[in-house]
Prior knowledge:
It is a single chain. The protein has four helices and eleven strands; from the N terminus they run βαββααββββαββββ. By secondary structure, it is an alpha/beta fold. The strands form three sheets. A six-stranded mixed sheet has the order 8-2-1-11-10-9, covered by helices on one side. A three-stranded antiparallel sheet has the order 3-7-4. A two-stranded antiparallel ribbon has the order 5-6.
Amino acid sequence: MSIAGQFECDVAIVGASISGCAAAALFARRGLRVVLIEQRRDSAAYKRMCTHYILPCARPTLQRLGLDARIEHKGGVRNSLAIWTRWGLIPAVDVAKKNFGYNVRRVTLDPLLRSLATETPGVEYWPGFARRDFAGGRGAWLVWKQRPLKASGVWFPRG
Length: 159
């Protein structure tokens, strides 16, 4: 089946926030063709409700994405966490060591991650397309604002 002006991909990701951009970059690095669909047209848009505390357990993914150095370059602060439990204190880790996360505002993190994803070969970025613009589909064919897209998989991430 052929539709004029169609775009074919392996996966369409609806939402270019943290999880959508990370997934787009990682899928594309594995050789998949990705369409990253975002409702906001401004590539510097960010989630305004919160800052972001990135736990140390996320650091391997940040390193895999090459995002850890970019976060530090943009002023992200290394963090650690001390937790008081009914069994006692779990002390904070020395941030000079390898086990740390980051404090970084979403105004910095979101555009940084979006640029990393959109610069990744294999990622096609579609700003200005929202879920509400989804006009339906049949099988693997989807239509966004009269723009046909054939995708093997569609993912609507949260976050």
